[in-house]
Amino acid sequence: MLNRINWAAIFKGLCWVVTLAGLIVLMSFVEGKKQSQKCTDVKILIPGAGNFIEREEITNLLQQNFGELRGRDLHNISIHEIEQQIQKIPYIAAVKVYAEMDGIIKIKVQQRQPVLRIINAGQQDFYLDNEGNKMPVSSNFTANVLVATGSIGEGFNGKVESFNSALVRDLYKTAMFIRQDTLW
To answer: Can you tell me the distance from the alpha carbon of 10 to that of 85, in angstroms, rounded to the nearest whole number?
Structure first.
């Protein structure tokens, strides 16, 4: 009867049970450390050479809306609210905020990519980004893009929104064609 017992299968099953139990214990330790971890630093990453927005501006925005983040418990810091506040900046296309195990909050920002600058009939100037949305000009950086001036009736109210007129649509299509064509 002892010869019929499959000791290899029992050993394999026991190894799986021990591994699973160890994993559960390890995850509980990680969760406990996460609950007690304090924010040690905030790192803002803005890839690319030309920046419409500087790190200091994002740091000031965080300071105004959330106070000092360093030294606070990570579980008391709302990552989602930080993302929402930064996303309101008109130069930002996407933002990703996350906390690392060592207490560092990382903020990765993707800027809007302008393809056309428009100076309309009322002398307002604004950019159109690669998704066709209007965005304001920046005092920090001037993009090297095509400029359209003249009798353009499309206005800009400071909000990131899509264009309305057929003329601006045609200008946008032309700018996108020139940008994508290697000959130009």
So the answer is: 55
Pairing of strands 104-111, 41-45: parallel
Domain covering 41-111: architecture: Roll (3.10)
What the block records as the tokens of 171 is: 């200008």
Q: Which position has the token pair 């304090």?
A: 38
Distance CA 80, CA 98 (A): 9
Structural tokens at position 25? 């214990």
Could you tell me the residue ranges of all domains in the chain?
Answer: 41-111, 114-180
What string of pLDDT tens digits covers the 184 residues of the chain? Answer: 556 778 788 889 999 999 999 999 888 877 666 667 888 999 999 987 778 888 999 999 999 999 998 988 888 889 999 999 999 999 999 999 999 888 899 999 999 999 999 998 889 899 999 998 999 998 888 888 989 998 888 888 878 888 888 998 999 899 999 888 877 6
Query: E strands, 103-171, where?
Result: 104-111, 114-119, 125-129, 134-136, 146-149
